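Recall the central idea of this unit: under ordinary conditions, the amino acid sequence of a chain determines the structure it adopts. In this exercise we apply that idea directly, starting from the sequence alone.
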Amino acid sequence: MSTLDDGTANPTLSDLRSSRWYTPGSEEIDAAHAAAWERIRELNALGNTDQARAKELLAEIFAPGSAVPGVFAPLHVEFGLNTSFGEHCFLNYNCVILDIAEVTVGANTLFGPGCQLITVEHPVNDAQARADGWERGRPVTIGDNCWFGAGAMVMPGVTVGDNCVVAAGAVVTKDVPDNSLVGGVPAKLIRSLD
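Accordingly, the structure predicted from this sequence is:
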């Protein structure tokens, strides 16, 4: 439990973004979840038939100042308010963003179907802490002009540089330098794209 000594049992939204351990659940967090999930429910119910309303909902879901990505719903987002996109991004069907901590995506970045951006992690070496619900968020940062193949995942605390390609099904557990093609589980450098 020593890794959880700096944790909190009644977190605020800013606690979630602090990379400290916490147990989920508070009035503030529950309200933020409810607001996001209601908008996501409405977005997904549109069935991709009303792009104007979808754009309005996405602008409400994502962080203030975020560009609105193109989306083929369904989309699954935990909070939305911790996620921002640059211009001209796209998310294909069934993408998942667990944005306990910040998710920052650069311009012109594209995600194939079923991609996941995960900022939340649980204690690895403490089964009781996992059972008790302890978790923490670590930010995910993705550069400009990236392409993620179907089913690619980016795990907590990872930065993917500019001009990268992440192969379908890859699980990115470590930072990826600019101009790289990575693939596999865990993802490894396949070659430079210089």
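The chain has a mean pLDDT of 93.
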